[in-house]
Amino acid sequence: MSDASKRTGNLVKSTDASALQAAIETMDSLSQCGFGQIEAICGLALSALENPETATDIDRIGTALEAIQNIADDIKNSVNCQAEDVGCHWINVPWRRRADARRQQNSEGQS
After folding, report:
1. Is the pLDDT of residue 91 over 80?
2. Domain of 64?
3. Which is it for the CA torsion 34, 77, 8, 91, positive or negative?
4. Alpha carbons 34 and 75: distance in angstroms, whole number
5. Contact (Cβ atoms closer than 8 angstroms) between residue 67 and residue 43
6. Model confidence pLDDT, tens digit, residues 61-89
7. Which of 23, 66, 18, 30 minimizes the C-alpha distance to 45?
């Protein structure tokens, strides 16, 4: 293990300042771009809802909402990937315990 990383359980966390800085800059860029897109789409959708001529255009408003959902999912995955690259990603421990319990239950049920 290098001097620039530290093992925590099965996770190797980077302590290399340049790697951490690059990850943070990438996450900032992803969030600024993606959240700016979400903000713009929300503004357009809200304007459409306030205009009697476009307020009933459910297809376009639905497409705008799907775009927001897709952008949010992309940002979530990209930020998580950047954090994972430096060993600093969030792990939902309670969810993991539940998933492990379900797997155990399924394997015992098949025995």
Report:
1. yes
2. 5-110
3. positive
4. 6
5. no
6. 999 999 999 999 999 999 999 999 998 88
7. 66
